[in-house]
Amino acid sequence: MTTDITLLVTGMTCEHCVRSVTEELSEVPGVESVAVDLVAGGESAVTVSASTPPDDDALRAAIEEAGYALASR
Which of 14, 50, 54, 63 is most exposed by smallest CB count within 10 Å? Predict the structure, then answer.
């Protein structure tokens, strides 16, 4: 069974941003795929599909490593 998690990420403005976030999130254990709906300068929806529920802290750390932040809700 695959788990899908959608995160809102701020600070992304271009395809380079998408590649950076995708690359970092893909390294989190269990993550099988990453899809990004880019909203330049806004909150981009990043959907992570994983074979097992990924650790929230690991997802946040991967996004921060790429140079971006989760939107605060």
Answer: 14
Task: Let me know the angle formed at the C-alpha of 8 by 3 and 11, rounded to the nearest 5 degrees.
Answer: 140
Residue 73: the pLDDT is: 62
pLDDT at position 30, please? 94
Encode burial over 5-38: b for 16+ CB neighbours within 10 A, e otherwise. eebebebbeeeebbebbbebbeebeebeebebeb
Q: Quick one: what percent of the chain has pLDDT higher than 70?
A: 99
Q: Which residues contact 58 (CB under 8 A, 6 or more apart)?
A: 28, 29
Q: How many CB atoms lie within 10 A of CB 40?
A: 9
